[in-house]
Automatic annotation (TrEMBL):
Keywords: ATP-binding, Cobalamin biosynthesis, GTP-binding, Kinase, Nucleotide-binding, Transferase. GO terms for biological process: cobalamin biosynthetic process. Pathway: Cofactor biosynthesis; adenosylcobalamin biosynthesis; adenosylcobalamin from cob(II)yrinate a,c-diamide: step 5/7; Cofactor biosynthesis; adenosylcobalamin biosynthesis; adenosylcobalamin from cob(II)yrinate a,c-diamide: step 6/7. It is an enzyme of class 2 (transferase). One of its GO terms (molecular function) is adenosylcobinamide kinase activity. This is Bifunctional adenosylcobalamin biosynthesis protein. It comes from Marilutibacter maris. The keyword Cytoplasm does not apply.
Amino acid sequence: MTAAGMRHTLILGGARSGKSALAERLADDCGLAVTYVATAQAGDGEMAARIVHHRARRPPHWACIEEPLALVEVLREHAAAERCLLVDCLTLWLSNLLADPDPRRQQRECEALSALLPSLPGRVLLVGNEVGLGVVPMGELSRRFVDEAGRLHQALAARCDQVLFVAAGLPMALKGTCP
């Protein structure tokens, strides 16, 4: 990958850290057509309000695909040299997969995403919540979620050109350079 517009970037941070705003700025600044891939589902009023907030701050000329499960298919279908795909967020996608009745789907989908990423043309911005910085959760499902999110982020970080961590709205480069 020779051009800045061809980079794949993983952006991690805590809730309300500024990671989505950073991803949106990077997408807007890259000069490519942007397709925003939203993985959230409005299961309650608070999540519905978050979705409305995210929609309101996106430029109207960006395309948007709302897909809670089939992320790999969406990326395969929409990646192009002249396009930036912004995925927000990986951890909501993972939560959706963990709720799937097929217990193996989550592993298959995460492995497929990791395998697909290096071959995707254009720019890909992946946003995820870093959830492994606190205490070990008490519940089994919570511990599994933290473990699976950590595994997913590690696999994707190994395949991305740039990995950023955002805290208090400030990006830090973990891999590559800081914007």
